Amino acid sequence: xxxSLSLDNTLVxxxxxxxxxxxxxxxxxxxxxxxxxxxxxxxxxxxxSVALAETVASIGTFFLIDQENExxxxxEINANHLRAVRxxxxxxxxxxxxxxxxTMVWDxxxxxxxxxxxxxxxxxxxxxxxxx
Length: 132
Hints:
The protein is about 15% helix and about 40% strand. It is an alpha+beta fold. The two termini are about 20 Å apart. Strand 1 and strand 2 form a beta hairpin. The radius of gyration is 14 Å and the shape is globular. It has a 6-stranded antiparallel sheet, covered by helices on one side. Belongs to the thioesterase PaaI family. InterPro entries: HotDog_dom_sf, PAAI_dom, Thioestr_dom.
């Protein structure tokens, strides 16, 4: 990660989310399915999937903007939870639908360790001026 973005002591680090690939074309992150991310029924919590999806969109947007003068903040997110996961890791793959000056729209697919689709999400990020 760049010096201007620390993930320590954030929701990202507390959920065990790790960024494994970051480029202009896509961002890939993993998250464990364990006591931090499961609901009381022993399956991946939908809110954890949404947190993973927004993390991917947020960090992806941050690395496509002027980091000294702009910030990326979530504007809207939706998610469809398609498959339950009980353990292991999930992987989120984010790509952009739209890269504008003021907004970016991301497609995030979350898959299990067998590459089976777990969740699909669309997240709109706002690009705002950074307060100095």
